[in-house]
Amino acid sequence: MSINCNTILLVEDNPDDVALFRRALQKAALDYPLHVVGDGEAAIAYLSGEGHYADRSNYPLPRLVLLDLKLPRKSGHEVLEWVREQPETRRLTVVVLTTSRETSDITRAYDHCANSYLVKPFSFDGLMEMVRALDSYWLKLNESAECHH
Amino acid sequence: MSRTTLAKVLPITLIYAGCASLWIVTSDQLLNKLFPDPDVLTRAQVITDWSFVALTSVLLLWLLRRELKARSRLAANERTARTEAEAAQQHLVSIMERVSDGFVALDDAWRFSFINEKAAQLFGRRREDLLGKHIWTEFPDAIGQTGYHAYRKAGTGQAPVVIEEYYPLVERWFENRIYPAADGLSIFFQDVTARKQAEAALSSSEQYHRHLFERSPIGLVLCRMNGSLADANAAFCGVIGRDVATCLTLSLQDITPLEYADQDRVQMESLRRTGRYGPYEKEFLHKDGHRLAVRLSGLLLDRDGETYIWSCVEDITERQRLDASLRESEANLQLRLTMLHALYLGAQELARSLDVHQVGEVVTRICVQTFGAQLAWVGSADPDGRVQRLAHHPIEVDYLRNMQVRWDATPQGYGPTGQAIRAGVVVVVPDIETDPAFQPWRDAAHAQGFRSSAALPLLSRERAIGALNLYSNQSGFFIPERLEYFQAFAQLTAAALENARLFQQVRQHSDDLEQRVTERTSQLTEANAALEAFAYSVAHDLRAPLRAMQGFSQALIEDHATQLDAEARDYVLRIDRAARRMDELMRDILDYCRLDRVEITGRPLALETAIDAALHLQEDALRTSAAEVLVQRPLPTVLGHHVTLVQALSNLISNAIKFVAPGVCPRLEFTAEQRPGWVRLWLADNGLGIAADHHQRIFRVFERLHGIETYPGTGIGLAIVQKALSRMGGRVGVESSHETGSRFWIELQALRSNDEHKLQHHSAGRR
Fold first, then answer.
1. Side-chain half-sphere of B447: how many Cα atoms within 13 Å?
2. I need a labelling partner for B90 at 20 to 30 A (CA). Which of A49, B24, B179, B373 fits?
3. Per-residue pLDDT for B761 more than 60?
4. What 8-state DSSP symbol labels residue B141?
5. Contact, B218 vs B312, CB < 8 A?
6. Within an 8 Å CB–CB cutoff, is residue A127 touching chain B?
7. Cross-chain Cβ contact A102/B555 below 8 Å
């Protein structure tokens, strides 16, 4: 099992959001390796190490998965369910990052053991604040099952 | 001297001669023996002689005295007798004169030789005028009359004759006893008026009793011990339809039906034992041969040494008829009660039946179980002329299995059912065996033991919609008294069937309607789902570009500020603001829409907790505006949904902070008011206030009272509050004026005692 204990996997189909996320990381001076996949199937392929993702030195299992729910091909929920079913990925830290505030989405995500559920902040300032909080909590403070400081 | 005197004297003389001779013979010899001395003897003889003389003298004296006494006594007796005879004669005459009864003596030539005063009075003549006169000369009118013949008879027959005659002069009855005598007739008149009156009275009394006997309305009959009739009154004879004379030739056996022999014997025993019998009831045979019910009682009666049975006979035919009629009317009443009860039960059950077949089942069951029919079936008149069977009871009877009944003019339509439906009248078949209209079904009915039948039309709005058909194993079952109730029941049945039919129609309509509602609901649900999908899409897809607009406009300002002039920077900032406002607007719309979709269940909810949560949400705004918040604690517990209530309160707080005059520190005060069943929470502010015209408007979506520049907002906040409260079963309102600020209120259901339990349970669970 090779987990790069800094890698973040962002599952996001909107290039604007990806760009803004990258800028926020950059502005917050957080230089974690960021891998981006644009749909649910790609996320599963990445996490299961299929195809070119089999190269774990280039595509290691991430320390943190930021998962959008509304995704092409396979939804974020399906991805989350799949993750929790696989012995290798079941303990991955998965934070849902979505625009939905629907109760059904929130409860379903927690039912499948999402570690956290975040609604995408509207403003960039909000995004900055969120990225900092993610860093301080999930990447620094929180003890993950696979990575030990 | 008479011979009797000689006869009396002669014995005395003879006794004397004898005694003297005996004395002469014996005295000397005796003295010689006694006294041998001659001196003594001589003396003794002298004494003896003298003694003899003395004794003889004494004897003579006694005899003479006795004779003289007897003679004088005889003379005295003779005198007395004469006097007495005279007195008696006088007395007799005086009696004859004094007695109230008359006395007349006639000599052998029919002449009055004696007539007393009374007799003279009876004849109305003076005595001296009649004495010595010839009776028939004096009384020529009497010749040929009763007295004449009696006198003649007594005179010629030489035997006493007694007659009774009325003497109008004295107005009295006399009994004439006519005694024949050697020299005529002696006639005694004895006053028998009293006896005659008594006799007359007795006779009248007898007549009276006879009258009573004969006229008695109760039959009275006297019969001998062998049963032959000795006497009978008209009432008795009338009972058995004979005249009295014929009656008396009959015996009780002649008029008693044979089967009463035993019963009569029992009564005879009672009569012999106790002297009485009855009362008991039996029958007599009338002359016509028909029987009459009678009630008898009587007793034994001895008359002239013979024993009779004295009986009272009462004709109770009428009474028995009345009794029977009473019993019949009682039975009738009982029948009516039963029928009425059944009708009541039927009405009750029918009122609950809303299905045509169920009505049929109820009706037929009641007709059999309660009304006593053998079989009942209900048929409806179908338009094609058939009678369709809706129900029958008992269901196991297969009489109806292959039965074809019609109500049109076909052979199957001429049965009672068809007739009843066609004519709309009750058709009774009193005897199935003989009714020709019943011919097609007779064998089947016969096999079931049905004797009579009735078909009652089921009339609805004067049209026969079917028939109630009944069968009985009694031939006279469908009497008018029963039919009356069956008809009433048929009316009920018709009404119930009509109701059931209407109800089925209504239910069909209702089902159709429900079907349509379901379809519409499903369509609506689909539309709603589409709308939800759209809203979701709005939330997700439309907000993403906004976010990009905002993010990149900010990036432009931050990263390329030096390359932009002031105007360009202003444009970029406007893009940023527009994006933010649009996002806010869409978030509010989604909140508002989401209230419709989320499930809201009322739970016990402490108002304080909800207010604290809402204040916490608005913490930043409160701090920024330096608002003063007062919460009047403790606050009651209500029934509500936490998240929804917090959202509503948060919106209200937000408004209270926002809509204040420039430079004024907002002041918020929460107070609660208990109302029956409800809790009203007031939020008073020191804001701008709202004119009364707008109090309704402000709760509508997108209603704004202020320009976006002065007081930014989406115009959805209060609409959300109203929807939130309405989803929790509560209300929202406002009291406000520009002077005093606004007093918003929300009302939620107060917690009842059983809700309290829920609350405790709830908090215990949370602990």
1. 7
2. B179
3. no
4. G
5. yes
6. yes
7. no
Per-residue confidence (pLDDT) for residue B354, from 0 to 100: 76
CB of A65 within 8 A of CB of A9? yes
Cβ–Cβ under 8 Å, residues B104 and B187: yes
Q: Do B583 and A122 touch (CB under 8 A)?
A: yes
Q: What is the pTM of this model?
A: 0.42
Residues 6+ apart with CB under 8 A from B584: B714
Q: What count of Cα atoms within 13 Å lies in the side-chain half-sphere of residue B113?
A: 12
Pick B550's closest partner by Cβ from A23, A98, A123. Answer: A123
pLDDT digits (tens, 9 = 90+) for B500-520: 888 888 888 888 988 888 998
Q: What is the mean pLDDT of residues B133-152?
A: 82
Tell me the HSE value of B105 on the side-chain side, using a 13 A CA sphere.
10
Cβ-defined contact of A16 to B540 (cutoff 8 Å): no
Within chain B, how many helices (H) and strands (E) appear? 22, 22
Estimate the share of chain A in helix, then strand, then coil, as percent rounded to the nearest 5.
Answer: 40, 15, 40
Q: Is A16 part of the contact surface with chain B (CB cutoff 8 Å)? A: yes
Among chain B residues, the shortest Cα distance to A127 is held by B551
3-class SS of residue B293? strand
- Alpha-carbon torsion B84, B86, B87, B93, what sign? positive
Instruction: Phi first, then psi: give them for residue B743, nearest 5 degrees.
Output: -125, 95
Whose tokens are 């998240």? That residue is B643
Tell me the H-state helices in B538-641: 543-559, 566-597, 607-617, 619-625
- The answer, for A106 touching chain B at a CB cutoff of 8 Å, is no
**Residue B672: CB partners within 8 Å, gap ≥ 6?**
B607, B632, B635, B636, B679, B680, B681, B682
Tens digits of residue pLDDT in B227-284: 888 888 888 888 888 888 888 888 888 888 888 888 888 888 888 888 888 788 888 8
The H-or-E segment that residue B465 falls in is strand B463-472
Q: How many residues does chain A have?
A: 149
By the 10 Å C-beta count (0-12 exposed, 13-18 middle, 19+ buried), B634 is classed as: exposed
Mean pLDDT of B418-440: 84
Residues 6+ positions from B234 with CB-CB distance below 8 Å: B214, B215, B244
ipTM over 0.90: no
Helices and strands in chain A, H and E counts = 5, 5
What ranges in B371-441 are assigned the alpha helix state H? 416-423
What does the alpha-carbon distance between residue B370 and residue B362 come to, in Å, rounded to a whole number?
A: 11
